[in-house]
Amino acid sequence: MAASNDARGSTLESGFLAAETGGRYILKPDQPAALLAAWETMISLLTTTTKVKAIGVSNFSTTHLKPLLHTSHPPMINQIEIHPYFPNTHLISFCAQHKIQAVAYSPLGSQGQTVRQGQTVATNLRLKHHDTTTRPLL
């Protein structure tokens, strides 16, 4: 696998990585061997350049995270869907147990499930924190 240490515009070349998009590489976690090879390449960029400060994943399930836990640098972040309609507590617990920060990419809901004024979860949060309905969710 060829990889460039030039973080300005480099792309990892392989059949399992999409082109670089906005400084992010898109991994396909359904190919475990390829995923591990790509992850090791990202670790080498983390350890050999000052331009890479952290490496993480997005939308990885526990199944996809487990192989990465045995590497020298497990993911620091897993960006996942978390909101009152989909609290994703099992995955959040798994991430916390393995010191992976779970980050919500959709704290107000998704796919037509947005939090509206007067709904129970949002209203309880608003009352508890004396704030607007959506602010405690962010």
From TrEMBL:
Write the record's keywords in alphabetical order, separated by commas: Oxidoreductase
Q: Name one Pfam family in it.
A: Aldo_ket_red
**Which Gene3D superfamilies does the protein's record reference?**
NADP-dependent oxidoreductase domain (3.20.20.100)
Name one molecular function that GO assigns to this entry. Answer: oxidoreductase activity
- InterPro entries membership: AKR, Aldo/ket_reductase_CS, NAD(P)_OxRdtase_dom_sf, NADP_OxRdtase_dom
Question: What name does this protein carry?
Answer: Putative reductase 1
Residue ranges of domain NADP-dependent oxidoreductase in the record = 49-114
Source organism of this protein record: Glarea lozoyensis (strain ATCC 74030 / MF5533)
